[in-house]
Amino acid sequence: MTNNSHQPIQKLLELIGFENFNIEANDEGKISISIYDDAIKNAARFLPDLETAARLVAKKNNLFIAGVDINNYRKERERLIVELAKASARKAIVEKQPVELPPMNAYERRLVHVELASRPDVKTESVGEGATRRVSIQLL
């Protein structure tokens, strides 16, 4: 997404009511939005809806969006999940018993599986159904 193709996303943010923001995009289609507005307190609740709207606007304008992040919320969340996966794997080894992580969405579970896939001492498995689906880290 080039700078010129920011215009549809910029217009979307303006229609929502944001005035002070910055949009950056990389070559992979990931958009990072920094919103400097007191109106946005909780990016976690706002992000999925904005991402859906941004994808619809992009599609209408023949643009591609791989993902949207607001105020680095998603980037920080990914970092925390990876750290949780590593710490939980260490705990499973020390305590010699499986460790179950809290329920996560499919993308977050995938982050855990990918992070721990190269470890020869543990394996991961998704367990549960629906909103309670989570990752179990077990010894090999």
UniProtKB/TrEMBL annotation:
Residues 70-97 form a coiled coil. Gene3D superfamilies: R3H-like domain. Transmembrane segments: none annotated. InterPro entries: KhpB (IPR039247), R3H_dom (IPR001374), R3H_dom_sf (IPR036867), R3H_KhpB (IPR034079). It comes from the Bacteria. This is R3H domain-containing protein. GO terms for molecular function: RNA binding. Residues 75-140 form the R3H domain. Keywords: Coiled coil. The lineage of its organism: Bacteria, Candidatus Wolfeibacteriota. The keyword Endoplasmic reticulum does not apply. Pfam families: R3H.
